[in-house]
Amino acid sequence: MSDPLVLVSVLGLTLFCLVVTLAMVVPHYVNKWGAQINQTTEQSLADFLIFMPVAQLWMRILMASVVLFMVVALAVSVQAALISVVVLILGLPALKNYLLTKRRKIIDKQLPDFILLIANGSAAGLSFMAAIEASVLQLPIPLRYEVQLLVRRSRTGDSLADALNDFYRRVPTDSMMQWVTTVQLGLKHGAQQVAVMQRLATSLQQQAYARERLLSLSAQARLQGKVMLFLPIGLFFILRKVEPGNTALLTETGTGQAMLIGCAILMFIGNMIVKKIMGNRRVVRA
Fold this sequence. Notes:
- It contains eleven helices and no strands.
- Helix content is 86%, strand content 0%.
- Helix 2 runs antiparallel to helix 3.
- Among the domains are: 64-102, no CATH class; 106-204, Receptor-associated Protein (Up-down Bundle); 217-278, no CATH class.
- By secondary structure, the protein is mostly helical.
């Protein structure tokens, strides 16, 4: 009796030690590898959607829609297949625009540090392109990929002005326009590039801080606008659950349906007015 008990105790203690060791060691590597995988996957998907030509994007959406329609129609129903296709057709371009907007905002936020790196490199005696090439590896993603493309185009024979204009076409923000214009004027007419770059970086940082401050102060007003948009919808469904006879006048009669359509239009117009007044911008964290 004692030998099996000792064996079970040793096995149990060994298993316990193994579990404790794995619990201490595995999370470190899981977090490390998970962060790398997530970053690589997210960046790959973003690049896949953002840099895909429009014709190729719509062709792939069409092919995916046909496959999705056939699968859902055979598995569920034709109506569900049509809904799925509509969601796919509307969702992928919206996802592309969202990723593109998010990428531009992140690059816009990373731009002042990049300008400071160029200014420091120029102050150390490097030429403009040499300062850009020296700062590439120090840049965060996704700005690093854009600068690498800028350097690659310059090395393949394109002029710096054309490469900068193409850079601005990919990231058409106010901060990028200021930087590109400053660089082009400095290279064309000559100027104190280091001092100008430093002042520009400081100005862009102050603008970003003021913009985020304004968005933080106006967050409550934007939230109130969303509440006022969805409050009538919630009240309608609550009333429909409590008093279905009253809501039937709105859903089953022509006059009621016209009133619902008019309310929806007015709510949409009001929401657009609130967005126009408060600004429809989001603070994107890098």
